[in-house]
């Protein structure tokens, strides 16, 4: 028996390691050549302190209070030298990945499909290269995270959130059609099956946490992508909490993947979605922005986890709406994307 541990570093890089039954996270990391901070390895110094965001584990009673107080333990703080997982876990490591002599993973793949979903968007499907990936090296990520994809014929990359399920050999992405955009030009022009691509990642702090209360998802345009990945995860693992999605676009044609959302509504016991179109000339039954259709009951008097992904104007409008209405969700996670910026800035402003 082994467990998958996601190590989320301060610089946004995520590394996945396997932890054997009875093994500490620190020992498992070192076995994977990830040098987590450590001085004593005996629960005395506190150097290896991190935060476990989700999962079950045992810390034992061998550490001293100066290394980890009862108050810190109650807040989810852990000592990786003492932490023995009993399930898959997500651990926040408060240093950069480079300081732990690790870094972002690199995965080769080949174009499987390119589909024009609308005037505004493409779907890119990539087969991860079996020549390089064996059973133990599948590209794993947390639903909601992203990778950088090198644009064929250039040295530049663009950042996109997965819309597929973690751990599969085929990865999919929803990509906005940006006028004169480098990736958009490739997808609308020379892209063909078997083109070689390189993916680096996964990265990002925008991902699905353990579902312990109702969930409200707010998607704008191709910001739907990470929610498709999250919903696939919920379908695979089961979910007994109500999950609602508000999905807003500019014009009717930009609404995509409605058949998949219908399938999730059939498969998940308490999932429903609502679409909104901003275009005043639209005949869509719900016009305006997602903030115009955020019914009070969706917020469960604050006992709700809110996830928001979309272009900056949408994210800013939702943040302003929450402030004006005095809305304070139990947890709030959002990510802005700006496709026209440089690669290192193109996808991210994520807040958890």
From TrEMBL:
Domain FAD-binding FR-type span(s) in chain numbering: 104-209
Domain spans labelled 4Fe-4S ferredoxin-type: 30-62
Matching Pfam families: FAD_binding_6, Fer2, NAD_binding_1
InterPro entries: 2Fe-2S_ferredoxin-like_sf, 2Fe-2S_ferredoxin-type, 2Fe2S_fd_BS, 4Fe4S_Fe-S-bd, BenC-like_FAD_NAD-bd, Beta-grasp_dom_sf, Cbr1-like_FAD-bd_dom, FAD-bd_FR_type
CDD domains recorded: BenDO_FAD_NAD, fer2
Keyword Oxidoreductase set for record: yes
SUPFAM superfamilies for the chain: 2Fe-2S ferredoxin-like, Ferredoxin reductase-like, C-terminal NADP-linked domain, Riboflavin synthase domain-like
Listed GO MF terms: dioxygenase activity
Name listed for the protein in its UniProt record: Ring-hydroxylating dioxygenase ferredoxin reductase family protein
Lineage, broadest ranks: Bacteria, Pseudomonadati, Pseudomonadota, Gammaproteobacteria, Oceanospirillales
